[in-house]
Amino acid sequence: MALKYKRILLKLSGEALMGSNQFGIDPDRIAQYAADIKAIVDLGVEVAIVIGGGNIFRGMQASETGVDRVQGDYMGMLATVINGMAMQDALEKIGVYTRLLSAIKMEQICEPYIRRRAVRHVEKGRVVIFGAGTGNPYFTTDTAASLRAIEIEANVILKGTRVDGIYTSDPEKDRDAKRYENISFDEVYKNGLNVMDMTAFTLCNENKLPIIVFDMNKKGNLSKVIQGQNVGTLVSV
């Protein structure tokens, strides 16, 4: 089976892990994600993952409740480690070797992030989960995903969402919204489309790293993207 991408970084939102719940982690949803990830690992794809923490705590919203922004961002980073541990558990239950690397040291539960070690893990076929964002406040997990993807020389960022691509407007609000199959970075800037936060998006653009936005909640979509099928929207230079 022909693979279009050999090494990928999969970006998942914390909210996606909630399933139909209001917060926390839906065991059925994370099990489906793990099965889809195993399917591409079995094909020989090298996989790294970054997961947000919005299902547990969002640093950017913390300031609205009176929590200091920096403190709130660190709390959000810890939430991403919790999600990373949950994903690690779900993957290992079905026989996938994993490593959880954190940008903030917590040796009892995960390895510290070291670029060379991360690259070695993916070369050995282990799924590497990057936790704690970049380790710095004011940066989102989108930025962490872009940075880590560039550092490990991934071929593409796959942004798994609950919609099947990038639209001319919000498809959940506008029934006439049309989906792009391909779009350039410049067109995204020009049309003011929301793909990632601007720091993350600019990092990808400057390093010519393509992004594919697709519906991760549909079983089998991840394998289709890896094989180059027309699933989601490709953003490229």
Task: Give an overview in words.
There is one protein chain. The protein is globular and about 50 Å long. With 237 residues, it is of the alpha/beta class. Strand 1, helix 1 (27-42) and strand 2 (46-51) form a beta-alpha-beta unit. Strands 4-3-5-2-1-6-8-9-7 form a 9-stranded mixed β-sheet, sandwiched between helices. The chain contains 8 helices and 9 strands. The chain has helices spanning 27-42, 59-62, 69-93, 115-123, 141-151, 185-191, 198-206, 221-226; strands at residues 7-12, 46-51, 98-102, 111-112, 127-131, 156-161, 182-184, 211-215, 233-236. The chain has a single domain (7-236), classed as 3-Layer(aba) Sandwich (Carbamate kinase). Helix 1 crosses helix 3 (69-93) and helix 5 runs parallel beside helix 7 (198-206).
Task: Give the SSE layout.
Blueprint: E1 7-12, H1 27-42, E2 46-51, H2 59-62, H3 69-93, E3 98-102, E4 111-112, H4 115-123, E5 127-131, H5 141-151, E6 156-161, E7 182-184, H6 185-191, H7 198-206, E8 211-215, H8 221-226, E9 233-236
Parallel strand pairs: 1-2, 1-6, 2-5, 3-4, 3-5, 6-8, 7-9
Antiparallel strand pairs: 8-9
Helix pairs in contact: 1-3, 5-7
Offer a quick outline of the entry.
The protein has 237 residues and is of the alpha/beta class.
